[in-house]
Design a protein that fits this description.
CATH class of the domain at 70-330: Alpha Beta
Strand order of the largest sheet: 3-9-8-7-6-4-5
Distance between the termini: 47 Å
CATH architecture of the domain at 70-330: 3-Layer(aba) Sandwich
Length: 463
């Protein structure tokens, strides 16, 4: 390619710096090239572009696992070609999935021994959809048996729920009824949830724990309130526990907390293997109390590739390697290993939150004693004369590579802006101290910029 052609390359083309060595033309961005290229070159083009992504180790916004052991990565690589849905072709992968479901059922005190009802999923969102579908189908069956209409189902949840529950309600034509935030309460509580239920309520979603502030919602208290509703009105309303994060935390560092199938009203639980299950994305799990909690209508028997296959999922073909990685963690870590890792995460979270509370400009909302997740806001007195906002602070920390989101709290408390940190396994105490240094440096910088106008909004951050 001539020097002029190289200079005049179209905006819609990639022209790597080493193009003159290897490439005769630019690489189209939005259509396929006429000819292919050498594997090493294709790798290098993509590899170099991905350097523009944030460094996952410093991403304190995400709950998703950003590190696994080399042996786990080797297993993932060796099983990239396994399709989880082909249970007849990959019977041992299917057996391992079944073992994982039973391990989770045992961890969450499901009745029975070795016959837990559940499945792996692409992530917690699919698992939530499956749990929601089971609640709707069971409610509809009860309504029909009683000769009552089935056209106005509703689901009760907190305004802090993850967007997948809003998707479920929209996609499956269910009315969402939200417990809004109030004062210093940013999650669902038992009293307010009980006020929203009626005979058309398919269930109540209770979160372990909230992505906004890391706190657990009170499963046992919600169940007790629903017991009182049933005694008064006769409505038997189930609970689905969204344990996307807490399902892999509470059993290990808060083992006496009753939130799982020890609570009789809990009919299903989901979790993300790729969050505190310590697996790369994406794998999720849903487990039901028993066979009665999963309507037969939702289970398909498929004749596929020479065998009869039971299928309960929204996705069909999906990777089996993440299920293998989950089983690796179960074998590798055991109960003690998971407990040590989750406790270490919580110790770092408590250390960080304690130091941030001492700085002066900030007031803690939570400190990380449920999930290893906490958030803070500006101290009200300090904020009156402050030259920066939490949005400014988030941008300043990003200059050093840290991703620490600032965002408003749920509906009805959207006036309150917070910053949040998620502590994961690869975030060490040493890294935490480095973050504190950068945080103090950022505050000192803004305090020296007395004429700076604080930002009132920042980058879009979605829960």
């Amino acid at each position: 390619m001539s020097r002029k052609k190289n200079r005049d390359a179209a905006a819609g083309e990639l022209v790597p710096t080493y193009a003159a060595r290897e490439l005769a033309t630019g690489v189209p961005k939005h259509r396929m090239n006429e000819e292919g290229m050498a594997p090493r070159l294709a790798y290098q083009v993509i590899h170099d572009e991905l350097r523009l992504d944030g460094f996952s180790l410093l991403n304190l916004a995400t709950f998703v696992t950003t590190w696994m052991e080399p042996e786990a990565e080797k297993l993932i690589s060796e099983t990239l070609d396994k399709n989880m849905i082909d249970k007849d072709e990959y019977p041992q992968t299917a057996e391992i999935e079944k073992r994982c479901v039973n391990i989770l059922g045992n961890l969450w005190h499901a009745p029975g021994d070795g016959d837990a009802v559940g499945t792996s999923t692409i992530g917690s969102s699919e698992a939530c959809m499956l749990g929601g579908m089971a609640m709707k189908w069971r409610w509809r069956e009860r309504q029909r048996a009683a000769g009552k209409p089935t056209d106005r189902p509703n689901l009760v949840m907190g305004a802090n729920t993850q967007v997948c529950w809003h998707k479920f309600c929209r996609y499956w034509d269910v009315e969402p009824r939200e417990v809004t935030a109030e004062g210093d309460r940013f999650t669902l509580n038992a009293e307010e949830a009980a006020k929203l239920v009626d005979e058309n309520t398919i269930g109540v979603v209770v979160i372990m724990g909230s992505t906004f502030d890391g706190t657990y919602e009170p499963v046992a208290k919600v169940a007790k309130a629903l017991d009182a509703v049933q005694e008064k009105e006769g409505w038997d309303i189930p609970i689905h526990v969204d344990g996307a994060s807490g399902g892999f935390v509470a059993p290990f560092i808060q083992p006496d907390l009753e939130w799982d199938f020890r609570v009789p009203r809990v009919q299903s639980i989901n979790t993300s293997g790729h969050k505190y299950g310590l697996v790369y994305p994406g794998v999720g799990w849903v487990v039901f109390r028993d066979q009665a909690a999963l309507p037969d209508e939702l289970v398909f028997h498929v004749s596929y590739l020479g065998g009869d296959m039971i299928d309960f999922s929204i996705n069909f073909s999906r990777p089996g390697n993440q299920v293998i990685a989950q089983y690796y963690n179960f074998l590798r870590l055991g109960l003690d290993g998971y407990a040590r890792i989750q406790q270490a995460c919580q110790d770092v979270a408590l250390h960080l939150s304690g130091e941030i509370a001492k700085m002066g400009p900030f007031r803690l909302i939570t400190k990380g004693d449920d999930l290893p997740v906490f958030c803070w806001t500006m101290d009200e007195t300090y904020a009156k004369s402050a030259s920066f906002s939490l949005y400014d602070l988030a941008e300043k920390l990003r200059e050093r590579g840290w991703l620490v989101p600032a965002y408003p709290m749920p509906e009805n408390r959207g006036d309150l802006v917070v910053q949040r940190i998620v502590v994961k396994e690869d975030f060490s105490r040493d890294l935490a101290d480095r973050l504190l240094e950068d945080l103090r440096r950022a505050v000192a910088y803004f305090e020296s910029q007395t004429g700076h106008t604080p930002k009132s909004e920042g980058s879009h951050f979605h829960h």
